[in-house]
From TrEMBL:
<feature type="domain" description="Acyl-CoA dehydrogenase/oxidase C-terminal">
    <location>
        <begin position="165"/>
        <end position="296"/>
    </location>
</feature>
<dbReference type="GO" id="GO:0050660">
    <property type="term" value="F:flavin adenine dinucleotide binding"/>
</dbReference>
<protein>
    <recommendedName>
        <fullName>Acyl-CoA dehydrogenase/oxidase C-terminal domain-containing protein</fullName>
    </recommendedName>
</protein>
<dbReference type="Pfam" id="PF00441">
    <property type="entry name" value="Acyl-CoA_dh_1"/>
</dbReference>
<keyword id="KW-0285">Flavoprotein</keyword>
<dbReference type="InterPro" id="IPR037069">
    <property type="entry name" value="AcylCoA_DH/ox_N_sf"/>
</dbReference>
<keyword id="KW-0560">Oxidoreductase</keyword>
<dbReference type="InterPro" id="IPR036250">
    <property type="entry name" value="AcylCo_DH-like_C"/>
</dbReference>
<keyword id="KW-0274">FAD</keyword>
<dbReference type="InterPro" id="IPR009075">
    <property type="entry name" value="AcylCo_DH/oxidase_C"/>
</dbReference>
<comment type="similarity">
    <text>Belongs to the acyl-CoA dehydrogenase family.</text>
</comment>
<dbReference type="InterPro" id="IPR009100">
    <property type="entry name" value="AcylCoA_DH/oxidase_NM_dom_sf"/>
</dbReference>
<dbReference type="GO" id="GO:0003995">
    <property type="term" value="F:acyl-CoA dehydrogenase activity"/>
</dbReference>
Length: 318
């Protein structure tokens, strides 16, 4: 845990709460000014000097508040550029992995692309974007690189995996927020003379919801610890797949508890659940991560899997 995490999360919690549901044009300048992009950049390079646990804490708060601005993408981009010794350009820097769209691509001053062991930095004038939207209505654009890269470097980082970790971290916050909304609703909504929370079927559904949210929390924490240790491929694959299961189970419960009100654009729930459904498929969907995890497990075999799990647990807990 970094020494300044409490200060960091206090600042992020206040800012993101103020920016909740604000449009990109209003939210992004304040996020950029706060300097979150340099969370993983060393202090001697002008950054915050944080760790992946700090990133998890901040991304979780972004998901909890349905922040309508990129945060994970510039954090990862600046981390990769600092690791490669490339100066980050001014403005929003987003990320691109093979087969994935670019979050907020149309607004980016530059894009960091990683493929085949090479990192390439493309400025906006070397990119063409086919604009699209995520289920939450956020920019999610396909990119074609039409010009030469401004800089390149060797890179051994799995960008797809880092993007997947970011979505798990954000989902952990969004699930907590959705659960809180559902709890508040069933405790105040009265049917047949009783609060909804008094009905056994509602209690059972909310218990299942809490289990799913807790599973994603634990998965995200394991990923951050493994990333700080230096080897997180196994944890990220398992976490992204587990997040997909949680979204599949928890989102319908949240909406069943709310009834029709949960779908209205004025109500906060759909701003969380639409993001959750989109994040499930971003940076690799369930099938992608199930195959990657399955191949890893099959390659280890029964005894090998046990030894691997025990060794990873010892490293992360110890």
């Amino acid at each position: 845990m970094s020494d300044n995490r409490t200060l960091l999360t206090d600042m992020a919690a206040g800012l993101f709460a103020d920016l909740a549901r604000k449009p990109f044009a209003e939210a992004w300048p304040q996020v950029a000014e706060a300097g979150f992009s340099t969370l993983l950049v060393p202090e001697d390079a002008g950054g915050f000097g944080g760790d992946w646990g700090d990133v998890l804490a901040v991304l979780r708060l972004a998901g909890l508040n349905a922040l309508n601005a990129p945060l994970a993408e510039p954090v990862i981009a600046h981390y990769l550029l600092a690791k490669a010794g490339i100066a980050a350009p001014e403005g929003l820097v987003s990320i691109s992995a093979p087969g994935s769209r670019v979050p907020y691509g149309r607004h980016a001053a530059a894009v960091v692309h990683v493929e085949g062991g090479t990192l390439s930095l493309y400025r906006a004038d070397a990119c063409s974007f086919d604009e699209g939207l995520s289920p939450a209505g956020e920019p999610w654009d396909a990119v074609t690189f039409t010009g030469a890269a401004a800089a390149t470097a060797a890179c051994d980082v799995d960008l797809q995996a880092l993007g997947a970790f970011a979505r798990v971290a954000q989902a952990s916050g969004a699930l907590e927020a959705a659960f809180t909304l559902a709890i508040d609703h069933v405790n105040t909504r009265v049917q047949f003379g009783r609060a909804l929370a008094k009905f056994q079927a509602v209690q059972q559904a909310m218990a299942e919801f809490s289990e799913e949210a807790a599973a994603v929390d634990a998965s995200a924490a394991a990923c951050a610890a493994a990333l700080d240790y230096g080897h997180a491929s196994f944890e990220i694959a398992a976490a992204k797949l587990r997040m997909g299961i949680a979204v599949d189970r928890a989102v319908p419960i949240a909406h069943r508890m709310h009834g029709a009100i949960g779908f209205t654009i004025e109500y906060a729930l759909n701003h969380l659940t639409r993001r959750l459904m989109g994040w499930r498929s971003e940076f690799g969907g369930d099938a992608f991560w199930a195959e990657r995890l399955g191949r890893r497990v099959a390659g280890l075999g029964g005894h090998g899997l046990w030894r691997e799990m025990a060794a990873r647990t010892d490293r992360l807990v110890g």
